[in-house]
Amino acid sequence: MAAGSKFLLLHLPDKEILRTIRFMGIYQKVSFSLISKRCKRLIQSLQVKAAFISVSINNDIRMFVALPGFNLQIYFENSTMRNEGQKKILGAPLYVSFHFTHRLERIGFKYSDWLDHFQTIFHCPSIDNIQFYYGSSEYDLDEIREVFGAIKKLYARDTGCYANNLRLFQKFSTIEKLNFNPNMFEGSKIPLSILQQNYDFLDIESYNNNATEMTLNELLVINSNRITIAKVRIPPQDLNKFIKLWIKGSSSRMEYLNIFRTDGFQYDRAVVMKGIKHSTEQIVELDVRRVSMNICRMDGTCATILFAVGWVQMLVFGFSLLSKECRKLAASLKIKSYTSIWIDNKITVVVRTRRREMLLDFYTEPNMYWGAGGKKKLTAPQSVLVHFIGKPIGNEKWAKNDFEMSDWLEHIYTVFNCFQLGSIKFGRGSHEFDIDDVKETFRIKDELLVAHTGCFEYNQMIFQRFQHVEQLCIENNMFRDSRIAQNVLVRNLTAINAGYHTEEPIVMTLNDLLANNIKTLLIKSVRISPKVLNKFIKLWMQGANPHMEYMELCYMDRSGVSLQSAVMKGIKHNVVIRPRSMIPFFKADGLDDITRVFGRIDIYRNDGIRATLDAGWDIFTMAVWFDHCVV
Amino acid sequence: MSVENAPVVDVDEAAIPVEKKMYYRFESNDKKEFRVSELAIQQSETLNRLVEAMGYTSEDVENKPAIAIENIDGKTLKLVFQWCEHHKGEAIPVDDGSVPKIVEIPEFDAKLMDIDNGLLFKLIWAADYLNIVQLLNVSCKKVANMAQGKTPAQLRRVYLLPSDEEDEAAKRAAQEAQDPRAREVEEEFEERKRQGGNSFF
């Protein structure tokens, strides 16, 4: 084909134009959309939809576009123009870059044009949130507001000027969600006018536990629906009065209040609940550090209060079990979560939200659930033990035995807006459970994590029953001979992630490497000789393992010297030295995120596909540059 | 009866009727003729339906005129049929309008498409007309690959993409071509304006 020749793309049939641009990478799609209105409409018609777009402002302006499985970062290098008041003017940015590596160009495009462009092509009509940080006081807030339009959430930090900080709240007074740091105000005193506003979500986050104090008056003027107050001192007497006044009808909008500190401070329950009528009928107290209480307002509205180290009041889950209405209310909070299952000699549902990780333990009662085959059956659990990770909160036990395991899952999915299990992890002791019951109850497609269950046969049964998972995470000791079973390697998996650095290494032979049919293979502790790697690379260059996209092996036979010469012996390769800013990005099926390829050795397969290798003294990586792996 | 005890019968292999492979004949718009196997034709939804509807026997194929494909030239059709023969019997992807997750261009296809862009353009049109989904996937993928690492300005040059102004001008020209009177009216209007007339009517 003649080099540099042109192709009349837009003269193809419409269907084939769209087919072609669908094949382009995201950077090419964005670049293409900038060429003309027609190109923009074509990209728009691909229906690539962003979950949200956010804007962050400090000395410069960045835009984040959350696409499915991929976050786009657009960086605007500001022009240095200033108006009479010495504020930066949002004219056309000097340049715009994509992940700091690729330039985007559109002559004459101002900020508002860029924003409008991204909102249009990614079908995201409004900005989800705007974040102000130190240095952002250089901008004219009126202009910022005009350019970025209606915002749902304001994330405010010290901009470098108290007066400007206050103006932020005036200019963005119509937002639904507010997150601010009290230390941004003079003397860390929050203006009452801000607390009086009605936000759906109000998050007050101090830098440290002793910098800010809030009084009863300040609590009472809060007029928002869901409130989180973090690392702020609130005297227990004020809390007591606040609850009493809530019972009498104040703070009637409040649906959820979460007050927490991270310094191990514990409220004296006797002081906080002094003179307050409460019941604990729904609660079984297990841990003296944590107590849950139900209180009732004069109009019949109920609330659950949880005391822990610090104080967390959470009206979400336990509350949601009280009635269908409570469940609806909890679901309406729209808390998004990622749910996974851990199985050892009990079954734990792990609910991970943005703020915390909650563990729900099922089948904890000994000598129950055992079926005829000597395995535990997943009949209705008698109780649930609830605890949290990373938060100084004790345990709680809910005695609710009219829910089957599937009912619990459905309830958790509803309340936490999660519709699919992310992963199942089988740990030691999990062989006690009937594998068919487990498979039937927890339908999983994405990721299976398997440690040695204590029974090698059971380990194998797990692989047999869960044939359709895409990714596998395994521990080294789960196979009898420290080798990954061939029947696992030959499966058409997206990824295997094996072992930990500290474990006994997995032995990989040339046959194991050649037999694997996996796109991404990560082994944290492997025993493999440089000769085997050398032969494998040679065979790959001749066409072996055609689907492999990425391999990372941390080998244990560390010689203290680089194995590069042994691994690359007799292999034609180029050593490419790239400046740091030119180190390429890479993505592969099975890798959680985009990664950078630091290797310097380029080799080529006989069909022209390139791979970049890194063969250091303790790690070997191989990134194959298929078109879809290029970022 | 066990297998060991079954009677042995000598079979005259020549007497077994062998199903003859059927080859259809097609003719391009520049009168070049091609013989294409029945299995290869299955890659093209359009041709497959056509030959099914015709219901040709082996004799018909030989005796009747070649099936004319009037809007594809011989050079392009040759590439299309080479591709179909090479990929005959392979599964045909469902074309639901979504981009296939991964499309790699096999070595054979890469060599076949090592052609100038004009011919590649015709190949895509032909594959579109004949509805050969996988050929469309690989050929469009090849065109998409031309965009790799290109800035918008470079993309504009590679794909000869018109600017908004050029699009507007082309649109106006198309409208005028559709209605020749429009141009005359416009010229008359301009002339009257030059003469100082206030009203066109």
UniProtKB/TrEMBL annotation, chain A:
Family annotation (Pfam families): F-box, FBA_2
Top-rank taxon of the source lineage equals Eukaryota
Q: Where is the F-box domain?
A: 6-55
The record's annotation in PANTHER family points to:
CYCLIN-RELATED F-BOX FAMILY, F-BOX ASSOCIATED DOMAIN-CONTAINING PROTEIN-RELATED
Protein name in the entry: F-box domain-containing protein
Q: Give the classification, highest ranks.
A: Eukaryota, Metazoa, Ecdysozoa, Nematoda, Chromadorea
UniProtKB/TrEMBL annotation, chain B:
Q: Is Manganese included in the keywords of this UniProt record? A: no
Could you tell me which CDD domains the record lists for this protein? Answer: BTB_POZ_SKP1
Tell me yes or no: is Lipid metabolism among this UniProt entry's keywords: no
Specify the superkingdom. Answer: Eukaryota
> Can you name this protein?
Skp1-related protein
Which pathway does the protein contribute to?
Protein modification; protein ubiquitination
Q: Which family does it belong to?
A: Belongs to the SKP1 family.
The UniProt record lists the SKP1 component POZ domain at: 26-88
Keyword entries, A-Z: Ubl conjugation pathway
Do you know which SUPFAM superfamilies this protein is assigned to?
POZ domain, Skp1 dimerisation domain-like
Region Disordered: what ranges? Answer: 166-201
Where are stretches of biased composition, namely Basic and acidic residues?
A: 169-194
Q: Name one GO biological process term.
A: protein ubiquitination
Primary role? Probable essential component of SCF (SKP1-CUL1-F-box protein) E3 ubiquitin-protein ligase complexes, which mediate the ubiquitination and subsequent proteasomal degradation of target proteins. Regulates cell proliferation during embryonic and larval development.
SKP1 component dimerisation domain ranges (all copies): 134-178
Query: What Pfam families does the record tag this protein with?
Result: Skp1, Skp1_POZ
